[in-house]
Amino acid sequence: MSAPILWIFAPLAAGLAMLSIPRRTHLKAVLGTGILVLLAWATWILPTVDTVSIGSLSIGISDTLNILGRKFILSAGDRGLVILIDLITAFWFTGTLAVKVNRMFIPLGLGIVSAEVAALMVDPFLYAALLIELAVLIAIPILAPMGKPIGRGVIRFLIFQTLALPFILFTGWMLTGVEAGTADPALILRAGTLLGLGFAFLLAIFPFHTWIPLVAEENHPYEAGFVFMMQSTVVLLFGVNLMSRYSWLNSSADVYAILRLVGALMVVIGGLSAAFENHLGRMMGYAVIAETGFSLLAASLGTQSGTEIFSLLFLPRVLGFGVWAITLSILRSLVGSLHFSTIQGAGRKYPLVVVGLVLAQLSIVGLPLLAGFPVKLALFEALASQSSQAALWPLLGSAFLLTGVLHSLGVLTIGKQRKFAAGVSRMQYLLLGAGGLALLVIGIQPQTVYPALNILLSSIGQLAH
Amino acid sequence: MLVLLPVAFLIVSALAILIIHWLRPEFIGSWLIAAVGAFLSWAVILFLRFRLPQQISLAVWQPVELFTSSPALVFDRVSWLYALSVATLAFAVILTATARGQYQTNVSAWAGSLILGGLGLLAVLAANPLTLVITWAALDLAELAIMLGSVEGEELGQRTVLAFAARVTGIFFILWAIISSRAQGVNLEFSSVPSGVGFFILLGAGLRLGVLPLHLPFPAEPRMRRGLGNILRLIPAASSLVILARLPEAVVPQAWMPYVMVLLVFTAVYGAAMWALATDELNGRPYWIISLAALALICVVRGDPGASAAWGTALLLSGGLLFLYSARDRRLGVIWLLGVWGFSGIPFSPVANGWRGLWAVPFSGLNLVFLVVLPLLLFGYIKHALLPGDPLFAMERWIQTIYPLGLLVLPVTHLAIAVSNWSRQVDPGIWWAGGVLSSLLTVATLWVWRMPDSRVQRILSDPSRKLLEPVFLPILNWITAFLGLEWLYRWLWAIFRLVGKLVSVITMVIEGDGGVLWALVFLALLISLIRVGANP
Lengths: 465, 536
Known about the structure:
With 465 residues, chain A is mainly α. Chain A has helices spanning 3-19, 25-45, 79-95, 105-121, 128-143, 152-179, 185-202, 211-218, 221-245, 247-250, 253-275, 280-300, 304-312, 314-335, 340-343, 346-349, 351-365, 372-386, 388-412, 426-444, 450-456, and strands at 50-54, 57-61, 64-67, 70-73, 122-123. Helix content of chain A is 72%, strand content 4%. In chain A, a hairpin with a 2-residue loop joins strand 3 and strand 4 (70-73). In chain A, helix 12 packs antiparallel against helix 14 (314-335) and helix 17 packs parallel to helix 20 (426-444). The longest helix of chain A is centred in the middle third of the chain and has 28 residues, at 152-179. In chain B, strands 1-2 form a two-stranded antiparallel sheet. With 536 residues, chain B is an all-alpha fold. At the A-B interface, helix 6, helix 11, helix 13, helix 17 and helix 18 of A face helix 5, helix 6, helix 19 and helix 20 of B.
């Protein structure tokens, strides 16, 4: 038996089975979360290469699965990445207990997990692009449920993600020459340019970022948030592993310089756009863009500590955007829209929801006390140790993002004192309370989770130049 | 762990009264719980004077190779001064709340005062810049929640958010200081501030002194302005003042010195004048803070950060006394006179050492300016103290006992601070500066004290108008409008809207129907720019 079967096909099978459950989203949420937590636990404890004896029956477990000449390999080191994907998805599934989502969300979410786990395991590595595209296709019905018109954002999401595919596959073909050591610098330059373009499409790098705010505006914030998180996490992991694999990439100072430039550009553009935004959903979209920029900046350090910062950034990001998306979903269901003209004074009626929103936003900004701060500070310090200019721009981007947060806070708290309005359920309060508490605890005591996360993600490709 | 006890007493008593109030709203012992918690906190800090220094690590952030610093608290000579001042303020607010109870008994205001007191203690005990920014953020978020929960209306809400923005900007300056230190290969600590970095710390602290924007939106009710309002104004100031005393001596580059000094001296004079002219102490409170904070900052810029603590504690304790002095009686004159003594600069008084930080040797014209600032502050203090207030004699007997105790704890603590610094305090400071001021003070006090009530009030409210109004008031009003920053907000808002329009036009273009093509055009442009940059 091949170990990858369990981690690729089990979620897929569970998702397919859940498609037959007509409604009951809470049941699906509990089942989906349970399955993923169980898989994460199994990934942690089960060996990937071993022989398991059950009575007289002996089952050999192999870490490799062959399909159509391609290999899916779950090495011991990659288990952390699979656990990360499973737990991030389980976290988002738990949130559906508090917010009403598309009934296909959980089954299709499990399908996305399958595709993305497969993307991290596939060899040759560049076939991951195909599996990421598959995940994108599975995500489309989440963002555009049957019977509802498809928005511009979803179409553009599909266009840009699909455009990435030929660039990366073509690079794969070119790289066979590079790997054989016969490549000339011109070929490397061409391959690098094509690869860069492919990743620019996948990671929504300026100017291919426009689908993010559009999707965030037109779609349910929780569903959009899930797609943003899954997509960016897997593409970032894919990108760093790719870099660590090819020495012509990870030993080139130019690559790191470009990563730094692009990362800073994304943080500044994301922050600046958020500062002038009048829609809370779109603001979250711009914050996603800025966060991707922070990850690129961490990768641009090209050091061991840079890789560690890159890995640790995932936790506060997922937690922050999770709480942010839940609060937006609650507000949208209560007031109808997330545009500033509609949500004016919502903080007076639903103060605890707005407290959750502001904490999540400020955590993403990197305000001290909250989860995003320790790793962001480590990143700023690491950037500054190379060049203070490199740290200045992302700090400025954070300041822009903070301006947007303060702008929205001002709008949300306009008006007279009112009695707390009904409409927020206990489950919503419970999840918001837990999320807010987690943001504070990780912000003050990062040592409670980061060392474990660091070990878990130690297999992320090491970058060094 | 002893270091954490004072904080724990304040926070636990606050949580206790909130929970009890939630479960049993009719419970009448909440004030007592708050008072006991505040007293224990104050007493433990007093006791810790004999156990200095003490340091405690709150956590060791891991992985250690990424986190160069971890949160820690320190009880040393400087932090003890400010910690005691903060705990005293919290204690005094709870004790004097009895006299304000006629307006409304408010458990949430007491709890708010205790929580802010606890967070303020953490801030003044911060052992390194990392702990400082974390505690500042906690203080700011707590203050924001309290303010937004109590103010109404669009303008007041916006002012609250603006005040929060000013404070967070201060945090960003400290973060930049940490980052720039790292750029120089130094891990920023209060004891090791690289050249050029101290100025950012000074800016960050200055922004957080609670004077920008000048008028914070407190509702007019005394409960908010006197008790919790006092805490909201003074504790953030304390959390900024404490780092001034920790800065190295040459914090401002020599070339900038004259400009920074002129700005600070101007601020001190302006604040003192506005304080003297204010209609009452609560309206004058921002000016009291601005003026004394400027004096503390001048000590730092002049290379004597240690002297700034004298002005800082005077700001908190003498100021706190007057701001809590709501119920008035002639018999309480002794208490506020002790408050006057606390910041008078008389030899052997608590701020006698503060002169050392202001006075330049050899004599310069600026020294004369300081001889104007302090008399103005003294004049304003006495004038405001003599204004009529709520009649104390009409209150219940127990209030007539507890309330004066609440006031008395402030000057007594100030005296304790002076005594604790006795080894330095034996030095009478710059005796003749103190002498001039003490003479002025004595003459003014005797002159005022011997007059009948009606004349005292008339004269004390008149001279500012008769002598100062025609000349200074228009100028001061212009300066107030300038420092109120309304003009700046209007400009910033105009720029914000302009850039916003530009951004929205670009967004509309790239998100419109031709967005995909525009993206390709932008990409081509970007690549060509990068190519030009790489091969100029």
